[in-house]
Amino acid sequence: MMKKLLWFIIAFIFISIAYFFLVYLAGWALSLADFRLYNSEADQQRNFNIVMSGWLLLSIAGAAWLSRRKS
Q1: Cα–chain center distance at 5
Q2: Of 15, 35, 49, 61, most Cβ neighbours within 10 A?
Q3: Rounded distance, CA 45 to CA 2, Å?
Q4: What angle do CA 12, 30, 61 make, to 5 degrees?
Q5: Which pLDDT band, with edges at 50, 70 and 90, does 71 fall under?
């Protein structure tokens, strides 16, 4: 049980770091291309909610899959 939990935590952290760099690089590339992602504060909040939901779903699903696979 502890081994599964340890693999879950490690995978969650690594997936979160990878997701952060992916989103950061995408934002940087879009800013270099002078592409606006939002026109208002509501659009900005919607984009933030989408990115955070994606992060949470991807991190939890990936960590659960890896912890089951490793143990």
Answers
A1: 20
A2: 15
A3: 38
A4: 20
A5: low
